[in-house]
Specification:
It contains 10 helices and 6 strands. The protein is an alpha+beta fold. It folds into 2 domains: 322 residues, Outer membrane efflux proteins (OEP) (Up-down Bundle); 94 residues, no CATH class. A hairpin with a 4-residue loop joins strand 2 and strand 3. Helix 4 packs antiparallel against helix 7 and helix 6 runs antiparallel to helix 8.
């Protein structure tokens, strides 16, 4: 055999062996709910916007802290100024004369002046400390706001995820129903040809009615799967060329939910809105204290200095004469700054107090409303948990009834009416069971959001390597 033929055979054999591997590699990956949630949280513009609010709060905290440090104010000016010479003593007339009197212009020249004012706060009665502590609490408020936004994204992803699996399982149900209907049609046709009393011509019409209903359900499942899939792709930021699959079946309940009291305690501990209220109340109280501190003086240390020069003006060293255009000095001082007004500070204190009271009432409203929300979602979980347990038993036995009805008809012991009744019950119970599973899983997600329990399983933030370096 020629060498090229043997080489060609080897390549062909390798291609045949590697074809299944290549086909598997081309299949889109299967992503579960935690993976989709992680992708969505990394992509979500809403989460990124809430993180920007945290960054803003952190910078505000840095600003509040920076008021503890010295501040330097400088002013540099330049312009033109009339020339001037020092006064002289006329021995003959025994009087002082001014070569360049101020009521006449004897030429102009430039001047420059630099003023410096360096201040260091010493004691402010809490004006700085209260506002800095309030800014720290505001950072925690914004961080809890990020978690709240993540909870909304998790709920959106879960709705689309469970909806997609439900639609895909619905398509499987359609394929199963079509198989049963084909088998039933074959039996009806065979029995009619045999002129069996167990089948009638009207059975074909009834079968066509079921076929129409199945096609309607098939269209709904197909469109529902498309919408849910596109929603998931949008939430995780996937483009047209990026595809994935989801697990084939909805998760089944593993155990009964915990008690309602447990979930309410979890909400009071973990719900981000409660974290925001708790930290926000402390921040508001600190702002009230800061507004009250504005009524008291501030003690500071300062260094005042100036450097000025005008080439066209002669200066004098007389310590009692102040020459604005020719000057050099620096002076350390200790001072007290105290602001007085007729109602402005009092109004600001009242505003801060009103905002604090408003937040306290908001907390009371939350303490009343959130447990009710938790109880509602807990009730939905319980309802669909029990429904799924009962409906699973119902649809399994309905399927057994259907299989038995087929066997009885084949043996001449049953009627087509038995098959129709079993098929209808099986279809209804199977659909209700899948819907109960969907509602259960969605209710669990909503319960986790209502209690804040999802915060325990949030994926860790990925560190930006360039920032870490």
């Amino acid at each position: 055999m020629p060498y090229w033929a043997r080489l060609g055979g080897l390549i062909l054999g390798l291609a045949v062996l590697l074809a299944p591997v290549a086909a598997r590699a081309a299949e889109p990956p299967v992503l579960n709910l935690p993976q989709l949630i992680s992708l969505a949280l990394q992509f979500s513009p809403d989460v990124k916007a809430s993180k920007s609010e945290v960054k803003l709060a952190e910078e505000q905290q840095k600003e509040a802290h920076a008021y503890r440090f010295p501040q330097l104010d400088t002013t540099l000016i330049s312009g033109v100024v009339p020339n001037a010479k020092r006064p002289v003593f006329d021995q003959g007339n025994q009087q002082i004369t001014y070569p360049y009197p101020s009521n006449r212009l004897h030429g102009v020249n430039i001047f420059g002046r630099l003023d410096l004012y360096f201040t260091q706060p010493l004691y402010t009665f809490g004006k700085i400390a209260f506002r800095e502590d309030a800014a720290k609490k505001n950072v925690k408020v914004k961080e809890a706001g990020v978690d709240a936004k993540k909870g909304e994204v998790i709920l959106q992803v879960s709705q689309a995820y469970y909806g997609l699996i439900l639609a895909e399982q619905g398509k499987d149900v359609v394929r199963e129903a079509r198989s049963y209907l084909r088998d039933t049609k074959d039996r009806i046709t065979r029995l009619l040809q045999m002129k069996s009393p167990n089948a009638r011509e009207s059975d074909l019409y009834r079968l066509s009615m079921y076929e129409g209903a199945v096609e309607k359900f098939a269209a709904e499942a197909e469109e529902g799967a498309k919408v849910a899939y596109q929603a998931l792709k949008a939430l995780i930021g996937y483009g047209d060329g990026q595809d994935f699959k989801v697990p084939p079946e909805l998760p089944t309940p593993t155990q009964a939910p915990a008690t309602l009291d447990y979930h309410i305690r979890t909400a009071l501990e973990l719900r981000p809105e409660f974290t925001q209220l708790k930290e926000g109340l402390v921040a508001r109280q600190l702002l009230v204290d800061a507004a009250r501190a504005d009524q008291y003086p501030s003690l500071f240390f300062a260094i005042m200095g100036a450097l000025a020069g005008a080439p066209g003006r002669e200066t004098t060293r007389d310590p009692y004469i102040y020459d604005y255009f020719n000057q050099l000095y620096g002076l350390p001082v200790i001072g007290v700054k105290w602001h007085f007004d007729f109602g402005i500070l009092k109004a600001k204190i009242g505003q801060a107090q009103a905002e604090l009271e408003q937040l306290k009432y908001t907390e009371r409203t939350a303490l009343m409303g959130i447990p009710v929300e938790v109880a509602q979602q807990y009730g939905k979980v319980q309802e669909n948990y029990k429904a799924s347990q009962g409906l699973e038993k119902a649809y399994v036995n309905a399927r057994r009834w259907l299989v038995t009805s087929f066997s009885n008809v084949d043996m001449g012991l049953g009627k087509m009416e038995d098959i129709f009744q079993a098929f209808e019950r099986y279809g209804n119970f199977r659909g209700d069971y899948l819907m109960a599973l969907y509602q259960y899983n969605l209710a669990m997600t909503r319960l986790d959001k209502a209690t804040g329990a999802y915060r325990r399983t949030l994926p860790a933030e990925k560190t930006n390597l360039s920032q870490a370096k």
